[in-house]
Amino acid sequence: METKILSDELDMIRSQTKGSTKLIHFNNAGASLPPDVVVDTVVDYLREEALAGGYETEAKHIAGINGVYDKLAELVNADREEIAVFENASAAWATVFKGLSFEAGDEIITSEMEYVTGLIGLASAKEAGIKINVISNDALGNFSLEKLEKAITAKTKLIAVTHVSSSGGSILPAEQIGEIAEKHGILYLLDACQSAGQLPLDVKRIKCDMLSATGRKYLRAPRGTGFLFVKKASQDKVKPVLLDFFGAGNVSLSGYTLRQDARRFELYEKNRALTLGLGKAVEYALNIGVNRIWDRIKYLAVLLRQQLAENPAIAVHDAGYWLSGIVTFSVKGMESEDVKRKLAERGINVSVGGSQATPIYMEKNGLRAVVRTSVHYYNTEEEIAALCQTLSLLINQNSNLEV
């Protein structure tokens, strides 16, 4: 039976995260503070590479580099042959989306919470004659499975949705969507950019064909890392967008053969130090336990929403039954960018969710920008109290200026 992350363990985790002693970091949905061991893994490899040579260092560490695929597979309950490492989630998502074959008149279903990268791809598909159906949330802010069922037609070829909203705090019912996709024989692409490392992911339960994710957010990995899952049975349905000798063999002017795993979607050249850093971050999360991480994030997010809501000048915007560790709000009489800047001056990191990140959701709800706070398991109750106290101080100062 898994236990909660208690104070002694939390103190140890924070002692292994130098950044947590310097500031209060509530921008984990942008980029988390990495554990020291992740930083050391990257730096040590780069130093060795500088002294021994790039190819030579890679050969020495090849078992560890290849082991990253096993760790990522364990994280999402996949087989290692279904994992590819990318520099970011956008490249992973675009690789599979652009590798799918559509014809004019085909239909793709998405949600109002879709991230901007996905919308760019969908807009390109729409220009090519593909119909895009957007499933709007219900009055309570929930993704409607009933609307999804009704939207499916014989021409529906893909369901492409974002698991955890970047600017809204809500979680889509990924497993139920997967059941519907499987029932109708429709390909299913899940953007797990904000959910990987935050909450448990099981591709077999979700039943997705493809899943893209980043390392820098809740996995606490270095920037410039990400990964892609493509189900073995679906790999031949996705044509690699770019190919080099790593993904193709038996090359001649007559043609070539593809690798028989998801690494056909990779290119050979990537940062081996960052790849090892990604693997170390995943290992760190697995050692703690993703279920335990998720339990603490939920607890901290509820606490933060409750304390924010106590201030009448703060409006919390998250809606729906299933909410993540991303908490969005606005402050009466203050621009979100100003709130972010004033908090940063006091050693508290937050972010701003602009209309460009999730434009359909933001426009529907009349939001131009929101303050985005995102808690992680290494955050504390005291940090939440400090944030809310600082916000109260800023609000009072702003009110005095207006008088």
From TrEMBL:
Residues 25-387 form the Aminotransferase class V domain. Its cofactor is pyridoxal 5'-phosphate. Gene3D superfamilies: Aspartate Aminotransferase, domain 1, Type I PLP-dependent aspartate aminotransferase-like (Major domain). Coiled coil: none annotated. Keywords: Aminotransferase, Pyridoxal phosphate, Transferase. GO terms for molecular function: transaminase activity. Belongs to the class-V pyridoxal-phosphate-dependent aminotransferase family. This is Aminotransferase V. The keyword Transferase applies.
